Structure formats: C-alpha cells, structure tokens
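Task 17 of the worksheet. Students: predict the tertiary structure of the chain below and write it out as structure tokens. Keep your answer in the requested format; marks are given for formatting as well as content.
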Amino acid sequence: MTVDSSLLKKSEVPRTVMIKPVSGWAALNLKDLWTYRELVYFLTWRNLKVRYKQTALGAAWAILQPFLTMVVFSIFFGNLAQVPSDGVPYPIFSYTALLPWTLFAKALTDASHSLVQSSHMITKVYFPRLILPIASILSGLVDFALAFLVLFVMMLYYGIIPTAVVWTLPLFVLLAMITALGVGIWLSAMNVLYRDVGYVLPFLTQFWMTLTPIAYPASLLPEKWRLIYAMNPMTGVVEGFRWALLGSTTSAPTSMLAVSTGISILILITGLYYFRRMERRFADMV
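Model answer:
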C-alpha cells in the first residue's frame, strides 16, 4: 500500500488563524460570543466568587440594599410625604420597583468597569471583549433572585396574590438587562478612553433613579407627558413589574412599554457598534 507523498505533505501543513483589528464600522460578529460561551460562564462564576469572598454577610448584601432602601422610602415618602401608591401598601409598592432598579444599577456599574478591571486579560490574550460586560451583568441575576424571595414573603404578609399575568415578569427582567447592557457597553468603552466616566457614573445612577417611578407612581404625571417620560427605559420596566405582580394599573402600560422597549433596543444596537468600533484600541489604552 502506497501513500501519495503530496497528500501527506499537504496534511502536515499547520493551520494558521490570523487575528486582525477591526476597521471602521465593521460587522458585529456576534457569533464569536457563542464560540466563547464557556468563557462567559467561567467569568460569571468568577465574579460571583470574588463578590462574596471574605464578606461577613455574604449573599445577605443582595437583600439588605433594596430592603433598607424600601424602609427609608416607606418612612419618608409613604408615611411623612403621603406619596400615593396606586392602592398598594407602600412598602410593597416601593420594593417591587427597587428589585429591577437594583438589578439594573448594579449591572450598569459592573459593566462600566468591566474592561478596566480586566485589563490584565485584554492585554495578554484574544477573546471577544464584549464577553466582559455580559458576564458582569449576568452575575447580578443571582442577587436579584435572592432579593426576589423577600418580595414573596412581603406579599404573603400583606395578603397580596400575584396577578394572572405574572408570567410576563421574565420579559421585564430581560428588558432591564438589555437596558443595562446597552448603556453599560457604551460606558465601558468610554471608560477605557476617559477614566472620568468612573467618577460620573455614581451621579448618573442617582440622577437616573430620581427620573424613574420608584418612590412615586407614574400616574402622578399628566397623561400627555407619560410617553415622553417613558423614553427613560426603566420607566417601562418598573411599571411593568408593578402591573405583572401587583396589578397596580387596570391595564397593561402598553404605550409606555413600547416606547421604553424601543429606546432600550436603540441604545443596545448603537452601543454594540460603538463598542465594536473602539475595540481595537482597548489593549493600547487600558
């Protein structure tokens, strides 16, 4: 039996993969995220271990932050200022809104700092840089699940039964994650080039919170201003949470949800292209 020497030599030629920086408004190449899906899992798990390692209260921090904020809101806004709560006990009213907001705020903060904090990886090995903000956002879902258990206990205490449309709740969680990812990848890319983004972020988060109907209902606004108000994507998320869990509105806030969803998708798409355009500079600037 003889073997063609030309075929043998051809099979021995090593396979070469060339990695080139993107130029201009290149394609997003989102298929790379699926190729590196295991890295997303390991980075998410790493973020969780780092967060709770050598902490006195551990996972209790995920519960204390929204719960204590709810207590403060209930005292000052619910009791002293007598802010209306759409017929729902004010502690439940505020805590239901604080759940998606805490998820969003933490995801936004972690995603914004993800590139700078992982500079040792960016400068040494190739992988889709978009994995870093995605992994930082996914790790926040564990905190959200823990804090959500407290809401069920509170609903049992006040005798409130979830509505028949509670099945839509994952859609509002997804909308909060999309919003956090869209804004987070904008800020993470900008934070590599301009480090003062890290100083602006706490103010941005607090200012955004005041523009979101957490301590007050969106029904306080005149009808003609509500669609403009819904251009804040978290308005649709918070109102959707209250509608799905508490039935605080007689019908679904369809118009507000449509506006908020459209803005979230627009922020995400533009953020992906901006991130992709700036990606080739990360290793040099980080």
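Marker's comment: Confidence is low (pLDDT under 50) at residues 7-11. The radius of gyration is 23 Å.
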